Please model this.
Amino acid sequence: PKRRVLETSSGTIKLQLLISSVQTSTEGAVRVWQVRLEMTEAHLRDLASLLSQDEQARADRFTFPEGKRRYIVTRGSLRKVIGQCLNTNPHDLTFGTGTHGKPFLTPINK
Model:
């Protein structure tokens, strides 16, 4: 598997690309990212700074610190990966929810 490193202001978050080019059609490929949940407090703060106000509020509602930490790491990492793929600031991404709760990325105005 190939490895890809995303830079943060206080260090790096290592994301491993597990499947690099499984063809699903003639137009695209499937990419699967794996993120380590264990990281320094500085990295956690960097990821938390990328969250929207709604995401920050949801993180604050977690009863147990580990649940909050996991949410911040996964949601912040999702923003990092999608932002890099779309060449946009991760903080500028906006997510919506469909009628059955399925999340989607709203169009980006550049």
